[in-house]
Amino acid sequence: MLRDDDPPARQIEKLTRINAVLIDRIDRLEESRGSAWSMFQGAVALEQEVLARTRDLERAMDDLSQRNRELAVARALAEEANRSKTRFLRAASHDLLQPLSAARLFLSALTDTAMDPHQTELTDRLGSAFESVEQLMHAVLDISRLDSQRIEFNRQPVPLDDLFRRLAAEFAPMAQAKGLRLRFMPTTAVVDSDPIFLRRIAQNLVSNAIKYTQRGGVAVGARRKGALCWLSVHDTGMGIPAVDRNRVFDEFQRLTHDGGAPGMGLGLSIVRRACAKLGHPISLTSEPMRGTVFRVGLPLVGALPEPARGADAPLPVLRGRVALVIENDPEMRRGYQMILADRLGMVPRIAGGTAEALATMGEEPPDVILADYHLENGDTGFAAVEALRAAADRPVPAVMITAHRDPAIARRCAAMGIHLLEKPVRPPELAEILGRLLA
Q1: pLDDT in tens, 149-185
Q2: In the chain, what are the domain boundaries?
Q3: Considering only CA atoms, which of 120, 137, 127 is closest in space to residue 105?
Q4: Which of 110-124, 237-251, 321-335, 399-413 shows the lowest mean pLDDT across its residues?
Q5: Long-range contacts: 373-382, Cβ < 8 Å, 24+?
Q6: What single DSSP character describes residue 308?
Q7: Which of 333, 433, 325 is nearest to 102 (CA)?
Q8: Keywords, A to Z (predicted)?
Q9: Looking at residue 249, what is its pLDDT?
Q10: DSSP state at residue 373
Q11: Minimal CA–CA distance to 178: which of 208, 213, 202, 209?
Q12: pTM over 0.70
């Protein structure tokens, strides 16, 4: 503080210090103002950056929403295309298997006639050609169903001995043509599975075993182990090298030493897919030059008292028995008539629908009913069987024949006590089924 009595030098010194302090305060004030301005400018820049990034995010969200809408439309179109494919294959399976089934019946009737060696060779080659077409069609239909996300299974108790008898009737001619022994071991096991897909699994395994076996034979059996029953298919073929044991389950894979065996390499792929969907474990063991064993683990649910083998020779049981056939296709009607009358010695009565079947039956119920599922004008085999049983006042044994692999059909057959037979119809299998029903 300045005093009046301070000498001039002292006053100058004090004024100099006061001036320095004021200048320092002014400098600090200016620095403070500059920092606040910088912060203000930074805040403005940050806000602009946030606004820019927000606009970018909004554009990205709009683009993502558009892409999601496009994906939803594409998915809906793909699902509709898949449903259309399923509907087409379902319709095509009936339209294609119907004439193929009729041709099978006619070819079987032809083989029962006297033929010279050249004609026999021709019929054998025709049979092989039909077999190839059937396998390809079944493979396409099986893969289509197994790839579907909405596939339904009709799980139920399946007696393996019944399955083995049908497989024996189906594959005996194929094994005999190659000079191979084909054995199915008797079993009392009853397992839990889908009967149609379990049969397809076994068909592919047995067919592959016969194809890739040049001498010796094929044996099919079942062995209980814990809660599972292992269905096994043994062959005495060339074996599968260790490096190939995984890829044989892929599509269109065939072994290099297959010897020109027919097929497209789809059978084991179908086996793997079906087992995965049904939860059945599958294993493979093989020794070079010794053979191969495929095993499928099936949940064991019970056992029959003893294997029923009454249908090994069905012809004596069938001779003179009356079979009422409900089929709207003229070629199939003629084919059934030839097989039932000429080969099996039965008395066929043919009708095209439910009303005609009732008129044909009259007061004498047949011994067995053979009904095609898909008839005309909304008529079905189920309606025919129900009407005939009601008119006969007893549960006449019945076989439902269809090209539709629909679990709903299988469930209704099981509920009505009707045996289900898939097209194309094989006469040996038909004879085996009829023999068991009428034994």
Answers
A1: 667 788 889 999 989 988 998 888 889 889 999 999 9
A2: 153-303
A3: 127
A4: 237-251
A5: 373/400, 373/401, 373/402, 373/404, 373/409, 374/94, 374/402, 374/403, 374/404, 375/326, 375/328, 376/328, 376/352, 377/353, 379/328, 379/353, 379/354, 381/326, 382/412, 382/416, 382/418
A6: -
A7: 333
A8: Coiled coil, Kinase, Phosphoprotein, Transferase
A9: 76
A10: S
A11: 213
A12: no
Q: Output the six-digit token pair for 8.
A: 């001039």
CB 115 within 8 A of CB 109: no
- Neighbouring residues of 40: CB distance < 8 A, sequence distance ≥ 6: none
Count, residues in the chain: 439
CATH value of 153-303 in 3.40.50.790, 3.60.21.10, 3.40.50.360, 3.30.565.10: 3.30.565.10
The answer to whether 230 and 295 are in contact (CB under 8 A) is yes
Q: What is the pLDDT of residue 34?
A: 58
Whether the link from the prior residue into 395 is cis, omega within 30° of 0, is: no
- What is d(CA 439, CA 437) in angstroms, rounded to the nearest whole number? 6
CA separation, residue 41 to residues 49, 52, 305 (Å): 12, 17, 94
Among candidate residues 395, 333, 352, 360, the one with its CA nearest the CA of residue 98: 333
Confidence at 308, pLDDT banded by 50, 70, 90: very low
Q: Is 33 in a helix, a strand, or coil?
A: helix
In this predicted structure, what is the pLDDT of residue 244? 76
Residue 264, pLDDT score: 60
Torsion of CA 434, 211, 273, 191, to 10 degrees: 40
- C-alpha–C-alpha distance, residues 413 and 402, integer Å: 11
Q: Give the residue-averaged pLDDT of 274-285.
A: 92
Q: Which of 214-223, 305-314, 321-330, 423-432 has the lowest mean pLDDT?
A: 305-314
CB 180 within 8 A of CB 145: no
Q: For residues 77 and 285, what is the distance between their CA atoms, to the nearest angstrom? A: 44
DSSP for residue 141 = H
**What does the pLDDT average to over 28-53?**
69
Judged by DSSP in three states, 304 sits in: coil
- The H helix count followed by the E strand count for the chain is 11, 12
398, 323 contact by CB (below 8 A): no
User: Tokens 């395994």 sit at which residue?
Assistant: 205
